[in-house]
Amino acid sequence: MSEPEQVGRDEEVERDTGAEATAEMADAAPAEPTAELGTAGPETPADEAPTERRPPVDATAPRPAAPAGEETRLRDVGGTVMGYLRGRARVLSGLVRRHRGATVALALIACVAAALLGVALFRALAVPDAATVEADARATLSTPECSGGTYGTDATLVTKGVDVRSVSRSQTAPEGTSPQFGAAGYATAEVVASYAGQGVTADQGATLSYALVDGTWTILPGATNEGVTWHATAGVDQSKVLSNVHLLLERVDAADAGEPPLAELYANAAMAIESESFDEEAQTDTLEVSCVRTEAFETYECLLTVTFSFSQTTGQWGVSQVEASGTARERNLEALLGTWSGEFRSQQTDGGKCLAAREGGLTVEVLGVSVGEDAVMLSGYVSGVAHYHANPADDAASCKGDVALGEVHFTARLESEDEGLVFVAELPEDVGGDASLTLRFGTPEDPSAAVAEVRSEFTYDDAILFIPYERTATYVDSFTLLRAEAE
């Protein structure tokens, strides 16, 4: 059948279907029309029918019951409308059956159009997926350098993960980037890369920019670094702290201006970490550092309490507070306590020598040390020989007037410390003469040497050309002191 014949047949079918619908509506109409108010009756012409006037109806007045045929008329109208709609539906159904191929084609076209519209809408709203952004962030962002500084650990960071916080789409190139030729859109991604190393973690924020070119998201150069936030998971590097104790001592010196300066006093001291308390929540680390300066006969001890604070901006530890013990400048002379045995070395005198001390020897027992603000004192007992006589004509092994000193109590005062520690004690006055004790701990030649000197003075009457005068004989016996072995 040709196309004109088909069109003519379709019009004829439509007319037949319309006629059938009209007939159905006529069949559904009521048999008798409903009489209306104001219309002509069978005996009164229509143009002469009087108009009935009625008073206003009160809203509260009772209403007359509806005529019995009114509900029937409403059902008739509803049935007519439904019949008309059924007729239109049969017409449409007939058209679809007669033009099934065209209907299918139109449906396919509508589906394709909807699909194309959906694709276009998806592309207009699409952004790079999280996996792509994470991979690009790992490849693009540089790992932060972790320098521990003066007190922290120098760590090598490794990437732990990338958190994609947000991805947004735009039609213009992001700020700081250049427009790309042929780009169908742009996107920016906010990410946070996490790193970890020995004793520290770091979070680096960054913004990545993308351009959609040829249906592919391409990352643009120049990722924007939003900064790094650091977090300590362990305390300071203790080896670095020990290497920089002098900086802590200088900080104490600057605060109290005491003498001698602690940095100088403990320049060659032994350092050790006594305790540590790391608070990860507060990002602080508190250490107790001992400094001990030990010499042959004296020691100094200082206990530093140092609080370090970690900077989340720089990732380094800094000193927030440091205190030194109150006895940091006090000399400890406990090494002098004990019994010392003297070995005779020599005697100095103006005449003949009396060498009785060579056989008698010397014993010094140091029992106490007193360190005060004004003086340093030693106390104990000494045993030896004193020479209360004039010089012999020739050197002699002993002389009349030699007196044995048996456990004579002494109290020696520190007189000099320029060349070792020099203590001098005046022994109790004796009837035969005067004696004094000098103890030297450390000499210019040997800082570890200990030397004792017993000075004896004897005053007697003498005469020159029968002229009498007083004359004093002085003997200084020197001994090398060695610590006596404990029994």
Report what the structure shows.
The chain is an alpha+beta fold and 487 residues long. The chain has 4 domains: 6-18 and 72-125, no CATH class; 130-232, no CATH class; 238-324, Nuclear Transport Factor 2, Chain: A; 334-483, Lipocalin (Beta Barrel), CATH 2.40.128. It has 8 helices and 17 strands. An 8-stranded antiparallel beta barrel has the order 10-11-12-13-14-15-16-17. Strand 6 and strand 7 form a beta hairpin. Helix 1 runs antiparallel to helix 2.
Entry summary:
Helices cover 24% and strands 39% of the residues.
Task: Describe how the helices and strands are arranged.
Layout: H1 3-28, H2 70-98, H3 100-125, H4 130-140, E1 158-170, E2 183-197, E3 200-213, E4 216-219, E5 224-232, H5 238-243, H6 245-256, H7 262-265, E6 270-279, E7 284-294, E8 299-310, E9 317-324, E10 338-349, H8 356-360, E11 362-371, E12 376-387, E13 402-416, E14 421-426, E15 434-441, E16 450-464, E17 467-483
Antiparallel strand pairs: 1-2, 2-3, 3-4, 3-5, 6-7, 7-8, 8-9, 10-11, 10-17, 11-12, 12-13, 13-14, 14-15, 15-16, 16-17
